[in-house]
Amino acid sequence: MTSLVRLTRGRLDDAIRDLLGKEIEERVATSNLDPDGQEAILASIGAHALSRYLPGEILNALRVFPATGAHALLLSHLPTWEFPPTPVNGFGAEAELAEINALHFGLIQLLGLTPFAVDYENDGRLIRNVVPNPAAAGKTSSWGSDSEFFWHTDNPHLPFGEPGTDPRLYIPRYLTFYGVRNLERVPTEIAAVDDAARLVDEQTWRQLHFASYEVGPPASVNTDPAGGATVRLATPVVEPGGDGFRVRYDRGTTRGQTDEAAAALDTWTQALTGIQRLELVLEPGEFLIFDNCRVLHRRRGFTPEPADAARWLRRCYAS
Ligand SMILES: [Fe+2]
């Protein structure tokens, strides 16, 4: 069986990549642009340059992506710049990364989406540096490396949102990534909920639709501020919606509230280890977006390169 993930792919040629990179570099050179304070300016610079240089079919693929029902989009051979050492403690000098941020936010703007952060996670900052942080060793976190990150969706304890609402109150609809370095060649693995449906018998699948689960916030959520860390009670794991099914799930924080619910969850969790998936090794200059409501993702444990050269992805939520 092949994976049901529908992935849209695009690739720039060398000439376009170089022109785009130069244009963005020149336009951010004279000001100090911080992603949290000047996101709109960075986005408009990036979107302007992308609109000017990207081939029509790639521009169109970006603009229609949210309406196509595709699970993910991967854009390769985007500009790269001279990157500083990997900020393995999680945060670096963001103003020095204005080119990357202009490109990242520009792509999100062309996709017709809104980037956002929540104040109880990642210090409230828009960009999450996905790096092997030594302080997170042994933890299931995007800052971890040694422990496996099992199949999950991000922030599954929140309700599903609708367009035209404050995205911070809901499950992030999309996760976006820009690859800075990945010498370890660690894949980001994605799988379609439709594939998860094929793993178990009908009764188990139906049970997962009942409002008999509780789903807690992930470990990366700061439990102090009100609102962010509420456990969601009496919720289904899977529900119909949009194009097929949507899902909320994290093995570490999802529990059945009845024996039947727990048994179905256990069966499904075990079956997930064999799910059809795409393994995407994000290279420098690659951009990935996937639907966090219709896609499960995971990352297996790995041994990072020395700190300065360790794996570094940039992640931003968008809805
Ligand atoms: Fe995640």
What can you see in these coordinates?
With 319 residues, the protein is α+β, with helices and mostly antiparallel strands. The chain has one domain (7-194, 274-318): Double-stranded beta-helix (4-Layer Sandwich). Helices cover 25% and strands 21% of the residues. The chain contains seven helices and 16 strands. The strands form four sheets. Strands 1, 2, 3, 4, 6, 14 and 16 form a seven-stranded mixed β-sheet that branches. α1 runs antiparallel to α2, α1 (14-28) crosses α4 and α2 (39-53) packs across α4. The chain is globular. Fe (ii) ion is lined by residues 142, 152, 154, 297.
Order of helices and strands: EHHHEHEEEEEHHEEEEEHEEEE
**Total E-strand runs:** 16
Give the C-alpha Rg.
19 Å
How would you sum up the major sheet? 7 strands, mixed
**Which fold name is given in CATH as the topology?**
Double-stranded beta-helix
Secondary structure blueprint with pairings:
Elements: E1 7-11, H1 14-28, H2 39-53, H3 56-68, E2 72-76, H4 98-110, E3 115-116, E4 128-130, E5 149-152, E6 174-181, E7 188-192, H5 193-197, H6 202-207, E8 213-215, E9 232-235, E10 238-240, E11 245-247, E12 254-256, H7 259-272, E13 278-280, E14 287-291, E15 295-299, E16 312-318
Parallel strand pairs: 1-2
Antiparallel strand pairs: 2-14, 3-16, 4-16, 5-15, 6-14, 6-16, 7-13, 7-15, 8-9, 8-12, 10-11
The structure holds fe (ii) ion.
Fe (ii) ion binds next to loops.
